[in-house]
Amino acid sequence: MANAWKRNQPTKLLAPKTLLLFFSTSLLLLTFLYLSSQTQNPTPKALKAITFDRTIKPFDCYKSPQAHPVIASIVEGLKYPFLYSLSDFGNLPEKPHKNIARVLKGKPFRRPDISVTIQEVLEKMKSDGKRGIFVDVGANVGMATFAAAVMGFRVLAFEPVFENLQRICDGVYLNRVPDLVEVFEAATSDQIGNITFYKVRMR
């Protein structure tokens, strides 16, 4: 009976086992509440990282006046060939751009190194089953843009020079990729602001 009386005694609240059980349960509960709040209510910083606030409208190729003259040709030696339009004609008629001379000889445009590199990288991505959006910062006349677009990648092209934008629009039509290429008349930076932009003319 003495042993039975001891077993029926109330448990002490400050006993080591009770404290350990209380502490571990509280820790699990706090961890669960913290993880739940992180999943359901992202912090403003996290929201900023996953949302895209578009403040620049895409350049409208249909409303833009067409460039003239248009000197365009296919690019030589690429697995996925494309056409692009020249914006730099060189010093006519004495010293035309090298690609104008090639066109007059019946040859395709010289292959830009950047186009080769882009297609090699994207080809590896495709073989690995990866897809994505190709962002061309400083698109010029689209040598990287169209290298990606003719492979089926969606492209966001940023270019601040109007004459180059006209040539990109030429390339959009010539390569039949209006659904894949979105053009923005803008320079890109990690800061918001205005800069003075200079361009070389009649070199």
Give descriptors for this structure.
alpha/beta; two-stranded antiparallel ribbon; 203 residues; Rossmann fold; 12% strand
What does this structure look like?
This protein has helices at 2-7, 16-40, 44-50, 98-104, 113-127, 143-149, 162-175; strands at 72-74, 83-85, 90-91, 95-96, 133-137, 154-158, 181-184. 40% of the residues lie in helices and 12% in strands. The chain is built from seven helices and seven strands; from the N terminus they run αααββββααβαβαβ. By secondary structure, the chain is of the alpha/beta class. It has a domain at 72-184: Rossmann fold, CATH 3.40.50.150.
Write the layout of secondary structure elements.
Elements: H1 2-7, H2 16-40, H3 44-50, E1 72-74, E2 83-85, E3 90-91, E4 95-96, H4 98-104, H5 113-127, E5 133-137, H6 143-149, E6 154-158, H7 162-175, E7 181-184
Parallel strand pairs: 5-6, 6-7
Antiparallel strand pairs: 1-2, 3-4
Helix pairs in contact: 5-6
Protein name: Methyltransferase FkbM domain-containing protein
InterPro entries: FkbM_mtfrase, SAM-dependent_MTase, SAM-dependent_MTases_sf
The shape is elongated
- Tell me, what is the CATH class of the domain at 72-184? Alpha Beta
* Biggest sheet architecture: 3 strands, parallel
- How much β-strand is present in the residues? 5-15%
Helix content: 25-40%
**Beginning-to-end CA distance, first to last residue:** 110 Å
SSE succession = HHHEEEEHHEHEHE
- Gyration radius, rounded: 31 Å
CATH superfamily grouping of the domain at 72-184: Vaccinia Virus protein VP39
Across the major sheet, the strand order is 5-6-7
Total DSSP E strands: 7
State the low-pLDDT regions, or none: 39-52
The overall average pLDDT, rounded, is 80
The CATH level-2 architecture of the domain at 72-184 is identified as 3-Layer(aba) Sandwich
- Please state the structural category: alpha/beta
Number of separate helices: 7
Could you please say which CATH topology of the domain at 72-184 applies here?
Rossmann fold
